[in-house]
Amino acid sequence: MQDKNTHLETSLSAETRVKLDLFSALGEAKRQLEISQALVIGKDKEIEELKAKITEVLAVCPPTSFTSTSLDHSNIHYTSKLLPQFMSEGSDDHEIPTTSWPN
User: Fold this and answer.
1) Is residue 18 in some structural domain?
2) Tally of domains in the chain
3) Does residue 28 lie in a domain region?
């Protein structure tokens, strides 16, 4: 009977240690989750602030301020394989589209 009690006490003690370790790990995981959530919330706020700043800047900039008059774009011809409506009908030509640049 004494051996059974000793064995039972040892088993309960080991079980208690395992439970304490599990609760400790759970607490650490919760702490890490809270830290991560706080970082995500901070980044979300930062994104919203940047979006607001971009909107504000775009609202006050004239649309022509983004074009450059120093470059002559008149000789540039863009073609795309993604835009089949610009290919001549009945053409079986499947060459890779090219871009012409001025010399």
Assistant:
1) yes
2) 1
3) yes
User: Would you state the structure tokens that stand for residue 92, as one six-digit string?
Assistant: 């079986």
What value does the mean pLDDT take over residues 46-64? 92
Q: Determine whether 1 is exposed, middle or buried from the number of CB atoms within 10 Å of its CB (0-12, 13-18, 19+).
A: exposed
Per-position DSSP letters for 46-72, written without gaps between them: HHHHHHHHHHHHHHHS-GGGGS-SSS-
The answer to whether residue 79 is domain-embedded is no
87 pLDDT above the threshold of 50: no
- Residue 90 and residue 97: Cα distance in Å, rounded? 17
22, part of any domain: yes
3-state secondary structure of 87: coil
Q: Which amino acid is at 82?
A: L
- pLDDT: which is higher, 102 or 19: 19
> How far apart are alpha carbons 75 and 101 in whole angstroms?
7
**What span, in angstroms and rounded, lies between the C-alpha atoms of 2 and 9?**
11
The candidate with the shortest Cα–Cα distance to 100, out of 69, 73, 81, is 73
